[in-house]
Amino acid sequence: MNLASRINSIKPSATLAITSKANALKAEGRDIIGFGAGEPDFDTPDHIKKAAIKAINDGFTKYTPVGGIEELKDAIIAKLKRDNNLTYKRSETVVSCGAKHTLYNLAQVLFQEGDEVIVPSPYWVSYTDIIILSGAKPVIVKTSVSAGFKMTPNQLENAITTRTKAVILNSPSNPTGATYTREELAALAEVIVRKGILVITDDVYEKIIYDGFPFSTIASVSEEVKGLAVVVNGVSKAYAMTGWRIGYAAGPEQIISAVAKLQSQNTSNPTSIAQKAAVEALNGPQDSVSDMAREFEKRRDIIVAALNAIPGVSCFKPQGAFYVFPDFSGVFGRSCKGKPISTSTDLATYLLDEANVAVVPGIEFGHDAFIRLSYASSMKLIQTGVERIREAVKNLS
Ligand SMILES: *Cc1c(COP(=O)(O)O)cnc(C)c1O
């Protein structure tokens, strides 16, 4: 059967694929340690679960307005004011079925054939495919570890052409954990405003940030850039609510109402009871958020130190999110049983087959010298897993 070329132009999410492969091997009885997961290993806080249970018991189980209930829009508006000093109206906010859905919908309403969208790399695996599905072309701006994995204003300016529609920023970043300072964002905003392109800022890791680093979103840098910015956020990462599927966007009304129109013809509203849970997440006590971040920070310190202690490996210290993106090119060229390891995919395959450790090859994020490890797992598993990697690297000849 001939499928539409649209679906043949993309690949399945690599991170989801690796997680499911690792789970399948575990189910077969293999002792796999998974570093693939893109979600917190904590449970959703109780007060949030209770809000959802109450919604069920109250019969809040019917269609809601397509773009989200007013109560949730108001909670989002209050959050954006409180945390980001941003002012939005209800008509400038829309709730979707997870931030990934928000990003997909934004791409569908903003981009088309002939457009270019700038994506700094290393990038989150889904950006490029979401852009391709819209018909537009992703334009990758490669950042380096020496620049802290951050795009400079010059790099951004050089990538802009007459076809450029938007740039996507993600800070703290998945996969590197790199986090832009307010000054760095202001310098990028100057280029964005001068060139008149849009900026989509994916702030889902806002709350998972370390060393007292103050989070800033580019939309808050000036009124001019706010007019060109769409803020994307959600409850998945901050509140350990990945399964609930609630994400949102705030931005110019014309864009936001187009997203709601699109949703009216595909998903309709996000799940009613999950919306009630998200209201509680945003309005309720925030202690669990900082508790999780502090725990992630401890794990980051352990995993970065352990990786850097492996000869041939060098690991950038993230300022946020829950991933490390170490450079393994120092071990490339060595081999196992005559099979050379020369790419991140070779390395990930070798680690899974010989060390029972699942990692994501860096090529999926645009950088083949690296692999991504999630440290959203227990300290014990992190330590044992990195020890296995260390042994496996030692066994290469
Ligand atoms: C996890 C993630 C998302 C999507 O989160 P949802 O669960 O869809 O809300 C978006 N962007 C990045 C960078 C992520 O890591």
Can you walk through the features of this model?
There is one protein chain. With 397 residues, the protein is an alpha/beta fold. It has two domains: 5-43 and 288-394, Aspartate Aminotransferase, domain 1, CATH 3.90.1150; 62-283, 3-Layer(aba) Sandwich (Aspartate Aminotransferase, domain 2), CATH 3.40.640. The protein contains 14 helices and 14 strands. The protein has helices at residues 5-8, 14-27, 46-57, 70-84, 99-110, 125-134, 153-159, 182-195, 223-226, 253-264, 272-283, 287-308, 344-355, 379-394, and strands spanning 33-34, 93-96, 116-121, 137-142, 164-170, 198-202, 229-234, 247-250, 323-324, 335-336, 339-340, 357-358, 360-361, 371-374. The strands form four sheets. It has a seven-stranded mixed sheet, sandwiched between helices. The mean pLDDT is 96. The structure holds pyridoxal-5'-phosphate.
